[in-house]
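Quick start: read one record
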Amino acid sequence: MAAPFVVPGPTGTAIRARLRVSDTDTAVLAEVGVFLGGLAAGDFVVRSRQGLEHGGQTWAVRKRELTGVSSARWAGSITKATHDQWALARRGQTAEVAWLRKQIASIQERLARPLGAKADKREGLPRGYDSRAEWHAKSRRVHALRGRLAGVEADWAAGRVRVVRGGKRLARLRHHLDQAGLSERAWREQWRAARMFLAADGESGKGLGNETIRITATGRLSIKLPAALARLANAPHGRYVLDATVVFRHRREEWLDRITNNRAVAYRIHHDVLRGRWYVTASWQRTPAFVLPLEAALARGVVAVDMNDDHLAAWRLDRHGNPVGEPRRFFYDLAGSAQHRDAQIRHALTRLLHHTRATGAGAIAVEDLDFTDGRCREKYGRNKRFRRLISRFPTAKLKARLVAMAAEQDIAIVAVDPAYTSRWGAQHWQQPLSTSKRKVSRHDAASIAIGRRALGHPIRRRTAPPPHDRSDRAGHRTVQARPDARRREGPRPRIPGPRTRSVPPGSGAKAGDQHAQHRSGHAAERGFWHQDSPPLSL
């Protein structure tokens, strides 16, 4: 079981604004973007051919060749973007190799088991396949995965990457235009927009934090034109000033502070063909926020959240692990377009953060979920509906957005191990908290389990003291003990003897040496408790 930890805050930020460009601005931006996109594509071909032999000398040669047709700053932006893309593809190869090896090992373990064999968790043995036909199909799949793994490993050893500038999905869509409802002209417009290059990294100490794409405090945007397109300039020093004015609605004060002090700001201009709009995105690095210790983050209690496919189940817990108030649910709809899903998640997280501030808690506890292998039949069986459910579950996006949004509200995010939270929460908390006027769901009970695990308490609840005629006469402790307290879950030590009050202690059929039945670590049978008699002086 992994220990809970405070998730570090974001190290960068990005804001976006719409450009209401004129027809002239549209023509200039499209021509510059297509020209620089062609240079970026050619530079990536050269970088891919170099493979592992790339170094500082080859980088300087590539930049020198691009400088002659564009400018030194555009050449620096293109070569850096190319290197970042190549490094991203290498990381993708590493992840694919690890996934393929995991899949092959999982299938081989099940192939070694007899047909219809059940899983044995104690021995760590997986279940066998149900039929001979399925076993045969899986054996063929192993051979296919091995061939695929050999190809990826060969590319990795040679430093060879495979990247489609513009996106593989859009490239494959070219052969299915009828099904997508697109004409060839509409597809070519999307393809050209996706392959444009209009991005420039900032540089501290330079005017307004960026010499290539510059935005003033009044919103005036200008671009340094490449040498081959200097004829399009309408301002001194080979620059083109757009008629559109940039207005950043979000984090405007932080952006103004950076450009006023000439601190680096990176800009990217892109064209959304489906909407017919142009956008500019500003991004910069932030100083990492101080990560609070776990004890300080949980000092005012925590709002525990159970993430589900259609809602967030939240419940406030005090620092002793007791649920306070009523459970809350924040619903969202993941159907529709990507923009709609993103907006739904953002609205749900906004309501969650407002609820956390209203309750006075200083932290939000979430599960450290990972559904990267959600479509794997070897892990989740034949339940295709469940595999599709967890495959579309936006765990990474939810967690990333929650961390970024909570950092602005000074709320800490605590991640806990997700093992058995739903099962143990329903077992120990769902029924006791349900009343005739309040129906506690399994997800609400899971949120309590998440919160108690974040606070360091066991998930099992403490029951109320029994009546005076039961057990040790209302002697059970009900105050929550700290996790480091010894024997915190044990009852009071008892005097050995018969378990009926009709026979005095030390006599009867069940009397005798209780240490003969001693079990190691059992708190109730380590010995008996005896109180000394008071001194005669009192």
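The mean pLDDT is 84.
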